[in-house]
Fold this sequence. Notes:
There is one protein chain. This protein is mainly alpha-helical and 662 residues long. The radius of gyration is 39 Å and the shape is elongated.
Amino acid sequence: TATGELKIALEKVDQSFFNEIDGMNDKNGSMSINNLNDYIDDTAAEVLKKNIDKLDKAAGIGEKDNMFSKEDLENVDTKDDKEFQAAVDYFKNNSDKFTKLETTTKDSKQDNVVSLSDLENYNKMSKLEAATIIKANLSQIDKDNNGISMDEIEDAKKTAVGKIRKALETVDQSFFDEIDGMTSKNGTMSKNNLDDYIDKTSAIVLKQHMSDLDQAAGIGDKDNMFSLEDLQKVDTKDDREFQAAVDYFKNNKEKFTKLETANEGYEADNIVSLTDLEKYIAKKEKPSTETEKQMSKLEAAELIKKNFDTVNVDKEGGISKKDIKNAYSKVDGELKKALEVFMNDSSFFDEVDGMNTKNNNISADNLNEYLNPKKDKKAMSKLEAATIIKKNLSLIDKDNNGITMEEIEAAKKTATGDLKKALETVDQGFFNEIDSMLKKAGIISEDKLNRYMNYKAAEVLLENMDKLTGLNSDTSKENDPNLFSYADLLKVDTTGNNEFKAAVDHFINNKAEFKTLETSMPAYKEADDVVALGNLQVYISDTEYERAMGYLDVLLNSFDDYVGADDKHIHFEDLEKSQDKEIKAAYKFLKEHDLINTLDRGRGYDANGQEIDGYRELDGKFRKDQLQHLKKLYEYFYDIKTTNNVFGRVPDSRFIASSLWR
């Protein structure tokens, strides 16, 4: 007989939909007003959750943050989506329901703003409610009458409707284990287990609400006690867990009597004290052999790894801090505890994120590396460290003006993973080594890092020349022990030698620099993808020349500050003791390149170019003219090397030292 919208609505109702609404409360074969109210309330919240992206900023105010205001609700364009419109109208026209929604999440204030967490937790069934409903419907779920297994829970979820479905959806593995462990743990939820859980949890909830129960009937004093009459008249204020606990003791006279006499020596008088509750709960506690331990970082990482897809909601780019926060509101049990470990310690997130390249996302590889660190615990090589520092330059160089040693030390405190290892490799000596690649200024710039990496990578290739030659990767060259090709770099086995791998990768990934390397010798200026031993030696000496000239200029410019009492000589020990970082670095360069004795006994010339006698003894000092002569020799040999290598080898610092000696 129905017409219009009513007819359309009634035609939507099949047996399945009818059962779903009938099952919202106690299933009795009818759709009651309470059932309909509960269904509408639950479903409206679900629909808003599904459309939160459309509600967020619907009024054009605020940021995209998975929240919406009352104003957003009033201004949203539902675009002919009738279900969405019905959900919007429901909360827009029911201010009490909107207030309940916006204050759902614990500690939420009434501020006309609804968060995603509010929607997810709205009307969420408590564990006590779920256990009570599952116990009442035990026969429908426990098919073999032998206790409910987790598999039976999962099967029942597929067909259950209404409040039974909500109760079953509350059960995750952690909650299942909690009930299973109430007595002897055997992998099932038995009636006895459920009874014990409901009994104990109901008492705990009443204890939490003692202030609401005390004087609820308006009789007596505030004294941390409540009567059966208080229990019958208390306003639970839509707190369904509290209501379930009240109903349990209100409807179980025998249990109430045990509760009111839990403190031995007191007779039944319909009065429950705080002590009664505490004693009652204590009797239900299972004897524990050890205090529950806080979850370790390793345990947390292992759980996140096992549940990676659950936490990585968007399936893109790994797990972000936002993913962890979102997942936290949706899971329970051990996984929730694992997420808490990450949420409570942001440095732990950064530590796992930094196991490889840090990008504010935790990948499966990051977790694997954290859980199964590589066995190779050797100190990181300088070349590896420089490469990693260059990649992370912007994280360390806060003022974009080059990295100081102070910035290195500050970054060590917060860095994680490979970056932390790289920074820990940098002491003052290594810092000076990179700083001196150009004019020494107490900073490491990107240009200096590039020069250092080029120089060091070439040195490492030279040390490993025997591994690179003879690979026959390029048929255009002979199998010459003094030659290797770009193809050889791609083929060579660097297993077990991280520094060699870093050097090979450096030139593979910098083809332009490889071209510079292969054309570095005057005799081989044509690019043919082949590097000779001489190319490496010349390439390295180019950098050595620049560094040597820089250090010699430092000593010449500071000469007058370090001359002795005779105003003619500098004593090497004064350089070694100097507090000036540049002077100390220059002294270290002289020492490392066998130039101390050479300079001490080297030749010197007066203003007319005449050799000055008296320089042949080792006396621990040198004159300015000796230093000037050393610099001229560097310039001379470098000039010859770049035009025509007449020495049969590249003149590095040691070659120059021996020449000065002669």
